[in-house]
């Protein structure tokens, strides 16, 4: 054993003995009046006796935060030790990023030599952040998820869920034989349906780099292998978005929901596209409330053909008449 290793071992042993001695002394401290056990009152910053109530020490230093939080999200917002971890980044946001601005802390521009140095640092920092093929795969996929979610206007909780689904697929070796973009798109589609903010396959395919058939095939495979519990899409979940894009009132939206409920009672929704039913319900509701919109406008918003809207429109009105009779 070398001299440095022996010295390090002796120092570590001495530190352990010192910590053990201090801990035992702290535990053996008793009340000076009745020899009772002492307790620390963090709210008042005092050390008191549990038996007689004597205040042994007061005005203790509180090493905790000066703020209070009542839930986890509020705690993350008030904490000043860095950004909270997120599943939307391959390293969960724990690594360091070097800003792209070539300016110092005072806002002054860097010299050419300093700019070259910072560019080299950025390059090496990027290399260290993605050390192996798995991390590079994850970085590319999560970037795709974020891009598509931004284009579709999906909230952060959907992006987080999609990132978790992709991580599970990567850990379970579901990617061999499939493209990174295809699995990432399928994860986003599944996450949107789980969160109750679904997007149709046509909408997903419109912002993805893979074809619609590949997305559907990969989605079925991922959902089956990961045993994802996803309910069938409800047409009513599409109504608020369609009504908002068309500028319809709350009355029209409520009327569209009533038409869909009637269709469910009559059983005509089975086997039909939920997007087509929602679009037809919004179109019918706009006519019933005198907020007329054209089939072409609804078709553009819902990304579905006018023929489908007309067919479902007549079916919804027939179901409404049958219930009234």
Automatic annotation (TrEMBL):
In the record for this protein, the sequence repeats are positioned at 143-226, 237-318
- The portions of this protein that span the membrane are none
Q: Which Gene3D superfamilies match?
A: 1.10.472.170, Cyclin-like (1.10.472.10)
List the biased-composition ranges (Polar residues).
Answer: 84-100
Specify the TFIIB-type domain's residue ranges: 27-57
The record's annotation in Pfam families points to: TFIIB, Zn_Ribbon_TF
Which family is annotated? Belongs to the TFIIB family.
NCBIfam families (UniProt xref) = PRK00423.1
Know the name of this protein? Transcription initiation factor IIB
Instruction: Identify the species of origin.
Output: Natronocalculus amylovorans
- The organism's taxonomic lineage, starting at the top: Archaea, Methanobacteriati, Methanobacteriota, Stenosarchaea group, Halobacteria
Q: Which gene encodes it?
A: tfb
């Amino acid at each position: 054993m070398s001299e440095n290793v022996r010295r390090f071992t002796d120092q570590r042993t001495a530190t352990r003995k010192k910590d053990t001695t201090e801990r035992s002394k702290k535990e053996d401290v008793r009340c000076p009046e009745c020899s009772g056990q002492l307790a620390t009152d963090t709210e008042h910053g005092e050390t008191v006796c549990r038996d007689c109530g004597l205040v042994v020490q007061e005005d203790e230093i509180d090493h905790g935060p000066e703020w209070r939080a009542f839930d986890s999200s509020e705690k993350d917002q008030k904490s000043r030790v860095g950004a909270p971890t997120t599943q939307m980044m391959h390293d969960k946001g724990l690594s360091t990023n070097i800003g792209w601005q070539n300016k110092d802390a005072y806002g002054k521009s860097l010299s050419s030599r300093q700019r070259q140095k910072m560019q080299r640092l950025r390059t090496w920092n990027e290399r260290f952040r993605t050390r192996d093929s798995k991390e590079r795969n994850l970085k590319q996929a999560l970037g795709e998820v974020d891009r598509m979610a931004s284009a579709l206007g999906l909230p952060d909780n959907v992006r987080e869920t999609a990132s978790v689904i992709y991580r599970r697929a990567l850990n379970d070796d579901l990617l061999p034989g499939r493209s990174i973009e295809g699995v990432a798109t399928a994860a986003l589609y599944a996450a949107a349906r789980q969160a109750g903010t679904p997007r149709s396959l046509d909408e997903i395919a419109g912002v993805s780099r893979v074809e619609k058939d590949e997305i559907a095939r990969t989605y079925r495979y991922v959902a089956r292998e990961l045993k994802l519990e996803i309910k069938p899409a409800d047409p009513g979940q599409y109504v608020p978005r369609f009504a908002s894009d068309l500028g319809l009132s709350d009355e029209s939206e409520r009327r569209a929901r009533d038409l869909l409920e009637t269709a469910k009672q009559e059983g005509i929704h089975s086997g039909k596209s939920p997007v087509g039913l929602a679009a037809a319900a919004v179109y019918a509701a706009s006519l019933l409330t005198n907020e007329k919109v054209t089939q072409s406008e609804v078709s553009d918003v819902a990304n579905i053909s006018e023929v489908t809207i007309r067919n479902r429109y007549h079916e919804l009105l027939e179901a409404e008449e049958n219930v009234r009779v």
